[in-house]
Write a structure and sequence with these properties.
mainly beta, 35 strands, 42% strand
Length: 447
């Protein structure tokens, strides 16, 4: 959630239970919690909205000077410096201690307050030491999902708690602010630079630096699960992120297009040949010939040749040599000529020269059952596919293509299907996205 300069609040992201439905009015501060949000109005009252099964959105009356929304509870600093908390109290996280405070932060199952003498007091769940605030004088405190951090008066940061899956080594230097998340932390340095640290991802799938885009001018970009690549204005390719390192070793030379998979990439050279690089047992050996487009995914790729035919290469099953899930026919391209292709994890779709769509590969959710009709664009998501009609309407099929996931009315000019969501650009340039979780997936466990 963000506080606009006119005092109104705007929230964005996942909107289960209405956590994004900020009320109207003028606010002086806003705080986004686990499934709810809270705002401090200019008259000092607190209003909360969103998930409320534990009463975390039932703000008490009275005047406050600050508010903090935690995971399933909330806390507010009253005008007199005392703290009031509400919501879930299974671990005592809402049992605020007495005394006068200058700040409060509600975390997961614990809370922390900064007393007026500069000391920090935390309360609630403490099996992992997240409520054992160290001694000393602080200027700010931040309680996260599992851990806590404080900004000392000398500008250094000290953190305490279990540090689940994370590295607890706070970087050196002087800071003006600190924020504690879930398994990671961020600090604002005195020189206005931002640095984050934490989850070291030993064998995990979180931060590989794929958001650390390099400086320079680019004409195109393609992002995969763990790395991304950009096509620079001079035709060279630069990649960043990645786990093994080889997927970021883009070859020299000039390219006209690129497509990023996992964990490899393919680029279309200026002469029409395809070059692939990275770590893949199947899909880095691009076939000879000239192409006009290339599309890759996990361990198979497809290229649109200059004569309109499609050639696919890589693993024809789903999995690896030792754990294949059957012959999905992902590289068994039907005959005919095409003008566009889109490769997904288990299947692929092509837009034929006559505007019809043909899909091939795995069909567990009906994602290869392309509808009749003519289209101008195609996009293959993980479990569903969508196509753009000549009149600007969007048609989807597969797991998300039933009546409960009908695309909104158009007209649209572009569409892209993701894992559990679809986004399309309206004719007026506005972006609209819609989402439907797969059967059996609880919103709290969404990808």
């Amino acid at each position: 959630c963000g506080l606009r300069v006119d005092g109104t609040v705007t929230c964005w992201g996942y909107n289960d239970d209405g956590r994004l439905d900020a009320p109207s009015g003028v606010f002086g501060a806003v705080s986004a919690g686990g499934g709810h949000s809270c705002g401090l109005r200019v008259d000092g009252t607190v209003t909360c909205w969103g998930y409320n099964d534990d009463g975390q959105a039932d703000a008490p009356g009275g005047a406050f000077s600050a508010v903090s929304a935690g995971w399933i509870h909330s806390c507010g600093l009253r005008d007199g410096g005392t703290i009031s908390c509400w919501g879930n109290n299974d671990d005592g996280q809402a049992d605020a201690p007495s005394g006068v405070f200058g700040a409060v932060s509600a975390g997961g199952d614990h809370s922390c307050g900064l007393r007026v003498d500069g000391t920090v007091t935390c309360w609630g769940y403490n099996d992992d030491g997240q409520a054992d605030a160290p001694a000393g004088a602080f200027g700010a405190v931040s309680a996260g999902r599992f851990d806590s951090c404080g900004l000392r008066v000398d500008g250094t940061v000290t953190c305490w708690g279990p540090f689940y899956n994370a590295v607890a080594e706070v970087p050196e230097g002087a800071f003006d602010a600190v924020a504690t998340g879930e398994d990671y932390w961020c600090g604002l340095r005195t020189d206005a630079t931002l640095i984050c640290w934490g989850y070291d991802n030993e064998g995990g799938h979180w931060d590989f630096g794929q958001t650390d885009a390099p400086y320079g001018a680019f004409s195109a970009v393609s992002a995969g699960p763990l790395h991304a690549c950009g096509l620079r204005s001079d035709g060279t390719v630069t990649c960043w992120g990645g786990g093994s390192g080889r997927e970021t070793d883009a070859p020299d030379g000039s390219f006209s297009a690129l497509s990023v998979g996992s964990p490899y990439s393919c680029g279309l050279r200026a002469g029409g040949t395809v070059t692939c690089w990275g770590h893949s047992l199947f899909a880095t050996d691009a076939p000879d010939g000239t192409f006009s487009a290339v599309s890759v995914n996990s361990d198979h790729a497809c290229g649109l040749r200059s004569d309109g035919t499609v050639t696919c290469w890589g693993n024809n099953a789903y999995g690896d040599f030792d754990n294949a899930y059957g012959d999905f026919g992902r590289t068994d391209v039907p005959d005919g000529t095409f003008r566009a292709i889109s490769v997904s994890e288990r299947y692929a779709c092509g837009l034929r020269s006559d505007g019809t769509v043909t899909c091939w590969g795995n069909n567990d959710y009906g994602q290869t059952d392309a509808p009749d009709g003519t289209f101008s664009a195609i996009s293959s998501g993980r479990y569903h596919a969508c196509a753009l009609g000549p009149d600007g309407t969007v048609t989807c099929w597969g797991l998300h293509g039933d009546d409960a996931a009908d695309p909104p009315e158009g007209p649209f000019t572009a569409v892209t299907a993701g894992t559990h969501e679809t986004c399309a650009v309206r004719a007026d340039k506005e972006l609209q996205c819609w989402m439907r979780l797969p059967h059996g997936v609880h919103p709290a466990a969404r990808p």
